[in-house]
Amino acid sequence: MEQELIAAQLTRKEECSKCILPVRDALEVLNGKWKLPIIISLMYGNKRFSQIAKEIPGITDKMLSKELRDLESHELVKRTVFATIPVTVEYSLTEYGHSLKVVIEVLRDWGVKHRERMMVEA
What we know:
Layout: H1 2-30, H2 35-43, E1 47-48, H3 49-55, H4 61-73, E2 77-82, E3 88-93, H5 95-98, H6 101-121
Antiparallel strand pairs: 1-3, 2-3
């Protein structure tokens, strides 16, 4: 009986660990104040740096540049350089980046419900 209880506890612990690890991995990529707003901006189409900056109030050019590079390194954002004069750079979501759409929609829906809940309780 005691061995069964220990085995059940180990199984729950393993299941918990199996759930935590991928969530931590995802949060590591998406963590921070600016990454999700950048991804959301690009979900509405390809944009130049200045267009993204205008859509996200409060982000500095330095931070936007850093976050775009990081998202690019995780294959979520693609940077395309056009041979124009002056050079034009455009950012877009990769197919992999677009796979976050469902996650963002669920997170948005939860955020709306949470905001309403907190306002009712206030």
